[in-house]
Amino acid sequence: MRRAAVILGVCLALLAADTSPARQVPVEVMPPRISIFYYAWYGTPARDGAWQHWGQGAYVPPGAIGSTFYPARGAYSSADPSVVRSQMREIAGAGIDSVVVSWWGPGSVEDARLRPVAAAAAAAGLEVSLHVEPWAGRSPAAVVDALQHLRSLGIHDVYVYDSIREPDEEWRAALGRLDGMRVFAHTSMPGKALKGGFDGLYTYDVLVNDGNAFGRMCASARELGLACAPSVGPGFDATRATGETRVRKRRNGRFYDHMWSSAIRARPDVVTITSYNEWHEGTQIEPSRVVPGPYESYDGAWGLTGRKARSAYLDRTAYWVDRLLARVWAAQ
Known about the structure:
It is a single chain. 36% of the residues lie in helices and 13% in strands. It is α/β, with parallel strands linked by helices. The chain has one domain (33-330): Alpha-Beta Barrel (TIM Barrel). The strands form 2 sheets. A 9-stranded parallel β-sheet has the order 7-6-5-4-3-2-1-11-8. Strands 9-10 form a two-stranded antiparallel ribbon. β3 (127-132), α5 (140-148) and β4 form a beta-alpha-beta unit. α1 (2-17) packs parallel to α12, α3 (81-93) packs across α4 (109-123) and α5 runs parallel beside α6 (168-175). It is globular. The relative contact order is 0.15.
C-alpha cells in the first residue's frame, strides 16, 4: 500500500539520519486517516435494466448526463464488478485508507450494492465506512438497529449526513446502545455533536465550508474529546443536475490545494474527501475526460492537459497524502 511504503521510507530515512542511542524512532505512528465519500448508485440499462442517476436533471444518458463533467469511464454501472474493482484500485493507489459508501437504508439499491463494494474494497486493501443518508423514515433508533446488522462488514466509522434534522436527545439515547463503531455528526459545531452523543464531526460540504474555519473547529473538538474529520474537495457545481446556481470554482486545482492545506494545519483525526464520484454536484475526483458539448474537464489543473489531466485530482490527492505523512513524521 502507498501509505505503508511512505511510512517505511520516512522511517528508514530517520534511522539513517540519526542512529544514536538517544534517538527514539517510533515503531508505529498513527497519522490521520484518509477517507473518501463514494457513491454506488449509478446504473445502466445493460446491467441494471434502466439508467440510474445519470439522467438526473431530465437528461438522456449516455449522450447527456446530469453533471458538468463527464466520467472517463463513460456512464457506468455501480453494479459492474470490473468497474468497482478498478475504482477501488484507483482509490487505494492515491493513499486513501477508507471508502465511505453512501447508504440509503435497509432495502435500498445502495444497500444491495454495499457488500460487493465492501468485498472489492477489501481486495484492494481498503477499509469500508458508511455514509448514512436521510432515507424516508430514518430515525436515530432505526439507524442504530441497522448498524447492528452490518457489523459483519467490519465497519468501524459511520458518518451521519444531515444529522441535525433529528433531535440531539434521540441521537444520544440511540448511540448509547452502539459499541465498536465511531459515529460522526454532519456539522461544523463540536458542541452540537457532543450534545447528540456522537464521537466526532465532519463537514462534507465544500461549497460553504471552504476550510478557513477548520483550525478553530478541530481545536474545539479536541477540547471536548471529539474526533475531527474536516472534508476537503476540489469544487462544487450542481447546475446541470439540480439547477443550483451557487458554484465553487476549482481554479485549476488551487481550491483543492487550499482545502488540503487548511485541513492539515487543523491537525485532524481524519481527512475526509468530498468526493470520489458525486458527479451531480461536481465534487468528484474520479477520472474525467474531455467530451464535446457543455461539459467541463480537468484540463488546466496543475498545468496538465489531455490524458495526463484525466487523473489530475487523484494524483494530487496522492501528493497531499504524502505531504500529510511527512508532516506527521517531522513532528515526531
